[in-house]
Design brief:
Number of domains: 2
GO molecular function, one term: RNA binding
Number of strands: 7
CATH topology of the largest domain: Small Protein B, Chain: A
Strand content: 25-35%
Shape: globular
Subcellular location: Cytoplasm
CATH superfamily of the largest domain: Small protein B
Order of helices and strands: EHEHEEEHEEH
Family: Belongs to the SmpB family.
Pfam families: SmpB (PF01668)
Radius of gyration: 20 Å
InterPro entries: SmpB (IPR023620), SsrA-bd_prot (IPR000037), SsrA-bd_prot_CS (IPR020081)
CATH architecture of the largest domain: Beta Barrel
Distance between the termini: 60 Å
Structural class: alpha+beta
Helix content: 25-40%
Length: about 160
């Protein structure tokens, strides 16, 4: 049996960086059933509305959609069930402190296989306001324009 190596991305939450200001990221394992793993191996999952909560010292991934396995039988899983995340106790304690003190949220950024094991990248994030999003767009446009000007200057153009 050949073991997988590297990182195979299944799903990414591309809109998350637009809607949230990411302060820190964590990697967590996920407790899954067999049909969930098979569905993920087919490359199907959606993180758009997902979030994580801490309940009684355990971290739970909520509202992440992993569709039912097409070849599954009556043992198939529920697509939007809550899934337990596997983190070290000291990481959970640190997360609880940060979430409670400053109103931050845990957002799933990507779902992937790392050496054959399903992992999720969680971001400790603060929600952005509309004016923050506009400032980010303006900053990105200015940066792009500066890079173009530098490129034109290197080529001898004006």
């Amino acid at each position: 049996m050949v073991k997988e190596r590297g990182r195979k991305v299944i799903a990414q939450n591309r809109k998350a960086r637009h809607d949230w200001a990411v302060l820190d990221t964590y990697e967590a394992g996920i407790a899954l059933t067999g049909t969930e793993v098979k569905s993920l191996r087919q490359g199907k999952a959606q993180l758009v509305d997902g979030f994580a909560t801490v309940d009684d010292g355990e971290v739970w991934l909520r509202n992440v959609h992993i569709p039912e396995y097409t070849e599954g039988t009556w043992t198939n899983h529920e697509p939007r069930r809550s899934r337990k995340l596997l983190l070290h106790k000291h990481e959970i304690i640190r997360l609880v402190g940060k979430i409670k003190e400053s109103g931050l949220s845990l957002i799933p950024m990507s779902l992937y296989f790392s050496d054959g094991r399903a992992k999720v990248e969680l971001a400790l994030a603060r929600g952005k306001k509309a004016h923050d999003k506009r400032q980010d767009l303006a900053k990105r446009d200015a940066q792009r324009e500066m890079q173009r000007a530098i490129g034109r200057a290197r080529k001898g153009m004006r």
